[in-house]
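Name: Amidophosphoribosyltransferase
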Amino acid sequence: MMKIKEHCGIFATIGENSVKYTYDGLKLLQHRGQESAGISYVEDGIKTIKGLGLVEEALNEKEVLQIKSKFSIGHVRYSTTGKTTLQEAQPLSNEKLSIAFNGTIANYFEFGNYSTDTEFILDFLSKDIKEGKDIVYAVKHFMDIADGAYSMVILDDKKRVLAVRDPKGFRPLVMGKIGESIVFSSEDSAIKQLGGKVLKDVLPGEIILVNPDGKILSDKVPSTSFHTCAFEYIYFSRADSKIDGVSVYMSRIRLGEILAKNHPAKADIVVPVPESSRPIAIGYSRESKIPLEEALIRTIVSKRSFIMPTNDKRKSVLEEKFGIVEDAVKGKRIVLIDDSIVRGNTMKRIIMLLRNSGAKEIHVRVGSPMIKYPCYMGIDFPSRSELIASNKDENEIAKILGADSIEYLTVDEMKQAIGRDSLCTACFTGIYPLKRNYSLQVMESVFNR
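Structure predicted for Amidophosphoribosyltransferase:
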């Protein structure tokens, strides 16, 4: 059975210090994928180096920095399809093309026996090019038949780099400049931290081609409606990023403010689950006038449990993930703030730790709606059976987790907080903004990890 996970980070550089900037960019996008990392570059043809683990584990920095190519693309992986193997780590390349891809092609299984959707993309584009088609034509042809979410960067043997964002704009992609070098990144925060300037968001449906001489061409396929993933704002993206001009940090602050206003709890302290929940907790504390305490301490070695490839690995990560400041929680009524609850593994253990440390009451407030449906646009919950909220109400969930109460935002409250209506809410509503309707049973059988 095929397996799924996801969220990835991509980076590309055209110009001086290309491979160095791409390498450093990937490190700044590490939160988007921790399974593998890789870089493709042009030097007497396309060369690709990649490895398993974090960027600094997967790639030898000393060797990387000796590469003098001016054309490179890179990838950190958290796989949507396939397995955690070096063979399936990205970028995926052949002698003509290399692909670094963030998203999920929901219908890729209909086109052949591919182990990953990235393999399908590479094969599809390569066939068109082999038949003499121009690379932009090949990309447009792919966009015509592909259904799903994709932001990707493409490198060819002619030293051209393309940046592509799907017509719905599910996944973010940004263009910038560092010195005289053109860069593309999954998030603008990485560009800014490298001392660069953000030029623009790649628009939904846009294809940007950078030629070897630096000349930039832009094309676009029709795009009727945008559906950027709400989880980019809630959880995945760095708080210092902006997506399509909307601040992730301020969105999370407003999520907390609306959560406090519409879902109050009588409590002594507000406690965030680190890291992405902190701005939500700040917003909740400000609005409710309940003081915030950093009573959960995340261990330095901990990784994001949600993006671990298997449930066993997620649970092993939880064992060493949090410490409790007992003096802050003993005898206290706590509002425990989390950005989202998918499977419930993390929350159940945190509540147990807080109880053992003397917490009097624990009221969980969640800065997103209940996740009831699988995602086939690039996030790791492909099966309803994995989702704690798929067939339970708030009272049932509170009982399972060991909380005194739990309340979530509604979809409308979430949209109000983020400040845009053009969001993908499929995992909350079961309404998938894809080209076609798919049977959930079929999709679960194809994508279940």
